[in-house]
Design a protein that fits this description.
By secondary structure, the protein is an alpha+beta fold. It has helices at 4-18, 46-52, 79-85, 91-96, 108-118, 131-141, 152-162, 167-190, 197-210, 271-285; strands spanning 22-26, 32-35, 38-39, 60-64, 69-73, 102-104, 123-125, 214-215, 220-222, 242-247, 249-250, 259-264. Helix 8 (167-190) runs antiparallel to helix 9 (197-210). The chain is elongated. The relative contact order is 0.10.
């Protein structure tokens, strides 16, 4: 994570922009793959990361502008968690690293929000994109999923702030893009007729993991580039094929690269492939 000052300054600017009300941040939870304890790769909500920097499941946060309070809600690890995961910092210790001094149990967020509503405070939240977030908003605020459109002032304030990247963010973005470029170069080096698409995608993804990060989205590596989001990797690459790659790496901090390239399965483009490629490239440059 960045320094404590980075997160406190981001939250201070957000409070100044909104002026009043309660800002609700929903962190992401774990999601079971085929049963509860075998989970998908965890990824924290990007806006939660931007303002609170903690990439841990089960957290929510509130910025109460009127009361000048910043609170992270979550539960401390049980002895079972510690047996499986080893000794971990407490929630308070984690929160203090990002400049938040107040922590409360997860369940306390409901009563806090209800009291804020009773005081006439506006509750601002961003449009939810996960099912558990929609259920929480319905349970906590009584807003049915069909009406959970989010607070426009909150949306605009977050966009206005995140549109501008600091020097430390640019370092992370460039790191992600460098790793992404290495992924594509690796694919170009190993691609040969007779390979399966998954051999190429596996080699690219290994580059992202070896750099200490992960994938920023599901890899597209296909001889059927006419299908824009083709995540099937079972085709055999044949002589004369063009191979479309759309892949990116994400750093440990959550900043991502995203690049596309098209290369011939053979050592060189055919004349027709090159003509089409140059038309597309000229259009891109223009």
């Amino acid at each position: 994570m960045f320094s404590k000052e980075t997160y406190t300054q981001r939250r201070a600017l957000l409070k100044k922009t909104l002026g009043s009300g309660v800002l609700l941040f929903l962190g992401n939870d774990e999601c079971g793959l085929n049963y509860e304890d075998n989970t998908f790769r965890y990824r924290q909500d990007s806006t939660f990361l931007y303002y609170f920097g903690l990439s841990f499941a089960g957290l929510s946060a509130i910025i109460d502008i009127d009361e000048d309070k910043e609170i992270i809600f979550g539960d401390e690890l049980t002895i079972d968690h510690i047996v499986w995961m080893g000794t971990q910092p407490t929630l308070k210790e984690k929160s203090e690293r990002v400049g938040v001094d107040i922590t409360m149990p997860s369940a306390d967020i409901v009563s806090y929000l209800h009291k804020a509503v009773q005081k006439g405070q506006a509750i601002h939240y961003l449009p939810p994109y996960r099912a558990e977030h929609k259920l929480k908003l319905m349970d906590w605020l009584g807003v049915p999923p069909a009406r959970q459109e989010g607070s426009v002032p909150f949306i605009r304030a977050v966009i206005a702030q995140r549109n501008y990247k600091s020097a430390e963010e640019i370092v992370e973005i460039e790191k992600a893009c460098d790793i992404t470029a290495d992924m594509h170069i690796t694919a170009m080096k190993i691609l040969r007729p007779g390979m399966r698409e998954w051999e190429v995608s596996a080699a690219m993804e290994a580059v992202a993991y070896a750099a200490g990060g992960d994938l920023s989205f599901a890899t597209i590596a296909t001889v059927n580039g006419q299908t824009l989001h083709n995540h099937y990797h079972g085709n055999i690459v044949k002589p004369g094929d063009l191979f479309l790659i759309d892949a990116g790496a994400e750093t440990e901090m959550g900043y991502a690269g995203d690049m596309s390239s098209t290369v011939p399965a053979d050592k060189k483009f055919t004349r027709r492939q090159r003509e089409v490629y140059e038309i597309q490239n000229a259009m891109h440059l223009e």
